[in-house]
Please model this.
Amino acid sequence: MPFVFTPIPLQLSDFSVEYLVSIVIVTLQVSLTAVALATVAGVALAVVVGFTEFPGKRLVESIINTGMGFPSVVVGLVVLIMLSNSGPLGDLQLLFTPEAMIVSQFILALPVVASVSLSAIESVDDSLADAAFAAGGTGRDVQVAVLREARYGITTAILAGFGRAISEVGSVLIVGGNIALNTPTGERVSFTRTLTTAITLEARKGEIETGIVLGVVLVALALSVNALGNVLRERGEH
Amino acid sequence: MSDQRTRDETGTDETGRNGGRTTRRRLMQAAGAGSALGLAGCLGGDESTPTATEGDGNDDGGGGGQSDDGGSNVGDGTLTLATTTSTYDTGLLDVVNTAFQNTFGITIETISQGTGAAIRTGRDGDADVILVHARGPEDQFIRDGAGVNRRDVMFNDFVIVGPPDDPAGINGMGSATDAFATIAEEEATFLSRGDDSGTNTKELNIWAEAGIDPSGSWYQETGQGMGDTLVQANQAGGYTLADRGTYLATQDNIDLVIHVQGPLQDGPAILQNPYGVIPVNPAVHDNVNYQAAMAYVGFLTSPQGQSIIGDYTANGSQLFFPNALAEEPDFAQYVPQDYGGSSAAREQARFQHWVDQVVPDDY
Model:
């Protein structure tokens, strides 16, 4: 039997195409922003740790590596406490906004980006640095040469960070609140509802099929972003 | 919460195109009464609306005019509502909140949690108003000064559901405590929400009432929402306690049937499920949008809000029964149940009164 895609769940009364699109947009906005910020901070961190020697360097590396496995629900709770009106940063009024979700995804993606970048930098063969140095390069030139060599690994780091951010559900559910707004005609429009939190909601309602369709959309999104990353990586080779 | 976000996509679309003329007219009426009641609920500083004393909503004059420009200025334009999964997952709030938004031009951000979590969110000042269903924790919320101006809004009931073949043999029992006792005796699988929700609170009350401390491998906590738990009970062939609204809304996806009815269909009074709305106390959290919260309370308890609730159906059944409107006073809704002579027995009698009054005999 040939595979025929029938978008049945999209015909459910509370599941319009506009609603789905708004969820996708929120998902991408939050995760891409979080990963962009995590890339800046994470690569900078990897450069600092990778190119300098200081006491406690091993400890810092261990902390970064441990951060990769940090449970997202705990990150969510910590961000909740910080951003709550009863918390220290309550005056910023960020809780239950996309910004709060960016904060928590940033915290989750940062160690991934930093750790994978760091190992990419550290695995560049010492002979390269030596050669750059022998060719009369300054310390800075040596670093640039190493970073150039490590760029594939760093791209992988960014993609891994993105995978971590877009697939997590625990923290965005807590700090975002899984909010959809109602338009004047009663349609739902995502405000802080991502694909993952929407799946949670559908599963809760027993709408398993709808949840799976959303999951397929999520995987397709992740796949597209990774494909894009690979294209960029290959282009860099020429 | 009180920030100044504006969202044009919800604020400026033309209203009522899909809703047709009757919906539009109802919204206009809702605008009249909603804003009038909102004002009566001490929105002292707002402009206009000389009709504040007429709460019947039959004037489509001044009040209605406010709705179309979306410019009525109650608080700062965003209302954060912390509520239970049962009100959200059934779709009721999509209808109620849309009508409220079109009336007041206030955007509602709904966070659906268990009752326990919703109360905590309100207690932390992270929501402006809560709509929940566990009178004990609600009373504690008020007693602690975290919330003010509680109102009864609506009710339905809980039902004990289980697999169609009814392994414990509780079908048709008239007592919830007897049914629970039988399930415990037979050690039939029972799924508990275990999440401090209103339903979980009710379930634990029933066990306590039956004098049983449920334990053993037959008693399983899911730690999940009502829908999840129903789906899980369906898979596991177990019993669970469900609010009728979520059960009816999820019915299509599961095989579970009702074995013990709630008071809506002559079941025991202990299975009553009343919902209350409580604004967060602005004296405790000065950045909550109290004006909008009171407007929301006003709207929910207005004749229009109540009729929207009463008209809402899923799978052909009415899910919630409004009970905010009464000619005689009902002080018990404003204060903790044991406050100043009101009692649980009185509350039960009161609930039965509402069942007799608004639930059709053939429901």
Observations:
- The CA atoms of residues 128 and 146 of chain A lie 7 Å apart.
